[in-house]
Amino acid sequence: METSPPKQYSQQEIEQSLYEVRKKIYPRALTGWFATWRWILVWFTQIIFYGGPWLTWNDRQAVLFDLVSRKFYIFGLVLWPQDFIYLAVLLVISALALFLFTAVGGRVFCGYACPQTVYTEIFMWVERKIEGERSARIRLDREPLSARKVALKGSKHLVWGAIALWTGFTFVGYFTPIHLLAEEVMSFALGPWETFWILFYGFATYGNAGWMREQVCKYMCPYARFQSAMFDKDTLTVTYDTVRGEPRGPRSKQADRFELGMGDCIDCGICVQVCPTGIDIREGLQYECIGCAACIDGCDQVMDKMGYPKGLIRYTTEHAMINKLGRRDIWRRVLRPRTLIYFSILGLIILAAAMSLALRQPLKVDVIRDRGMPRATEDGSVDNVYRLQMMNTEEKPNRYVISVQGINGVSIVSESQFEVAAATTKAVPVRVRVPAGAAQPGSNRIKFVIQDTDDQSVKITEKAVFIVPR
């Protein structure tokens, strides 16, 4: 039996298989139901992002992460380093929400609300307004260098740069009061760290949304790599109906596709031209697909022009394609055990976090015993000195009274009432005295009780140790 010799590959073919040079993608502009929703989310997210630092609350910036004073202001809520647990809870909620959305609708977050998608959409809109639609941009890139080309390209990059710098300025405005930051920018008095982060974040926005675009989604974002672990056969994904569409091929609008033995796909390529990552959805689900549904809008427009039913490309599930399920059956299977578990855990964590914040005491106290030796008085009493680190998390000054319990006759012989300014900490020295013979030599347990003089519900009890010399 003769065998054919192994195929010989040239060095150029080997290099091409290992590293493929990026082919620039020119997404085509389109309108449609999903495109409208994508722009609604662009406006919604950017109004929140760009407008957030300019909101005021109690004569201060409403949302400010003040790293210098180690306080996070979120409207009426003031969080301190001791409240780090809430950041951990927020990350857990975000992860579970992502799992839930992915199990239900695939990469719906990527297609509509991911910052990379949002800023790429904004930058592409600028590009279309300055350089023209898809065909005009292709022609412009192929033209030799000219004054017109330099003017168009330069104008586009200037606008991109302005958007990127404003984005970097806004980002830093969440960590440095934005009114102060604006004054520093206008007077050319920016500090080194503010300058660095404005330029760094601006450069990242400019590079990712203007130049790298789909490369970020394909190669830098880890979500594309592990998304399949969260998919199942009832996950809604952007799907091409192969049974209905094949065999594909061009034909006139008047032609009868049934007589020609052809499917509904006219092989126009619109689905590829509108795709921001440049894939062909007709080849099946691919990890590069971000679920933006641009191909659905594009294909539906073509189906309308041809007089065919919409939905050749649509959001559907693997089970629906195999079993030919209707829309009602598809949505009924959304509430399956997997999504119900995600939803239940997510709901419980959100409820617990909300209750914790609602019941959170606006007073925090740390008790530190002085390292010095206990002091005996002339009548045989014993004094211990403590430092109470009192934190008032409310945005109004509060007055607190301190008492001590645990040993018969124990009392505070120093000042026992203190006022702590709004949203500040105060170190309070407290001298505690125990009468002679009231406590055993060695360590004795006591409790400090700190109570708000105006609000009886604000009450903190902290344990401490009282030392009696042997």
TrEMBL record:
InterPro entries: 4Fe4S_Fe-S-bd, 4Fe4S_Fe_S_CS, Cyt_c_oxidase_cbb3_FixG, Electron_Trans/Redox, FixG_C, Ig-like_fold. This is Cytochrome c oxidase accessory protein CcoG. The lineage of its organism: Bacteria, Pseudomonadati, Pseudomonadota, Betaproteobacteria, Burkholderiales. Keywords: 4Fe-4S, Electron transport, Iron, Iron-sulfur, Membrane, Metal-binding, Transmembrane, Transmembrane helix, Transport. Residues 256-284 form the 4Fe-4S ferredoxin-type domain. Pfam families: Fer4_18 (PF13746), Fer4_5 (PF12801), FixG_C (PF11614). The gene is ccoG. GO terms for cellular component: plasma membrane. GO terms for molecular function: 4 iron, 4 sulfur cluster binding; metal ion binding. The chain crosses the membrane at residues 30-52, 72-101, 158-175, 195-212, 340-359. SUPFAM superfamilies: 4Fe-4S ferredoxins.
